[in-house]
Please model this.
Amino acid sequence: MDLAADGITATTDADRAKLLIVDDDPEVRIVVAEFLEGFGYEVVQATNGREALDLLPRHPDLRMIISDIRMPDMSGIELVDIATQRQRDLKVILISGYFVAQKIGRRFLGKPFRMRELEAAVRAELGA
Model:
């Protein structure tokens, strides 16, 4: 993938942020993580909400959670509600391949999404 041809530039060390990617689908999680690492973000991965919550205390410098909504045991919505209670400054992007009928009150990307949409959403949330 030629990111420069898409008009996308990598982050600098000054704005490097640590992001947590949570998705029970390993293919989606790994592709998203590798893409964001390519932009200079530091990425931590979790396969479900419980694992993500266990990782929070070990990564106090975490700036954002990008989570799938539909996962076994704990939804992404439940995860980010708990995580943002524990760490109020966390930014959130929720993703899902399913129609979301309820109002979620957070930035949302429907799968499949373009990687440039994800990068724009990450930059917008971190800048907010």
The helical segments are 26-38, 49-55, 76-86, 115-127. Residues 1-98 form a domain with the Rossmann fold fold (CATH 3.40.50.2300). The longest helix spans residues 26-38. The chain has one domain: 1-98.
